[in-house]
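Please describe what follows:
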Amino acid sequence: METTRQQKISRLVQRELGEIFQKETYTMFDGALITPTIVRIAPDLSVAKVYVSIFALKRGRGEIFEIIQANVKKIRQMLAGRTGKQLRIVPELAFFIDDSLDYQENIEKILSQK
């Protein structure tokens, strides 16, 4: 069960990461559309699990995810710059691919075949 503080920080991190990904989409991520869908904060507020949805035009989803993994420190620094007045300690970021949309499409495809 998340506390109110965890929920507030997760919403803040999700919003700011969304803006970071939107600004850096052409320079860092080769035009891919990256959306943080879920952010879960650890009870001690030290780690944030970020689930991202990736829509890549030029490269594959795996390649874009590797770029995200390689730039975790830079993304965390950008997040710290945006949330410096609101967070005392910026949580470590752990990124995961959110495949819930793929799962939903697969279920709809199976149901439409019957």
